[in-house]
Design goal:
The protein has about 140 residues and is α/β, with parallel strands linked by helices. It contains 4 helices and 7 strands, in the order βββαβαβαββα. Strand 1 and strand 2 form a beta hairpin.
């Protein structure tokens, strides 16, 4: 499953499919590389409630040193887990209400959603192996 960068729609893409994958809603080309996508509160709710795969959410802010240190880890995880996870990033400075709604008190904080609900929570920086282990076990 992949999230469209243009409209936020979730799209199922068959592994090994030939040609260029396009969004079923807006017909934009889909990025199948699996890079984490920035999301706002409304986009987060749509993704969490519609995804048939787990959603990993990174709460972060540009001024946060541990967040900047963790960013390449999240990027690497997202690319390796593409199609099996949707990886999103929510800037807490731009979306304070969403951070408050989830009780975020420190960043980076990671939430893992499955079937519309939170199934895992971790605060603090992690290495790639730790992030992957946590996300797959939660």
């Amino acid at each position: 499953m992949y999230r469209c960068n243009s409209c936020g729609a979730l799209n199922n893409v068959r592994p090994g499919a030939s040609g260029t994958a396009v969004c079923g809603r807006c017909k934009s080309a889909l990025d199948l590389a699996g890079a984490p996508q920035d999301v706002d509160a409304a986009g987060l709710e749509r993704a969490v409630n519609s995804a048939s795969v787990p959603v990993l959410l990174d709460f972060w802010a540009p001024w946060c040193g541990p967040c900047r240190m963790t960013s390449p880890v999240v990027e690497a995880f997202a690319r390796e887990a593409r199609g099996r996870f949707i990886t999103l990033k929510l800037n807490t400075d731009e979306n304070p209400a969403a951070a408050s709604a989830y009780g975020i008190q420190s960043i980076p904080t990671f939430l893992l959603f499955k079937n519309g609900g939170v199934v895992g929570r971790h605060s603090g920086a992690m290495g790639k192996d730790a992030l992957a282990s946590w996300a797959t076990q939660a």
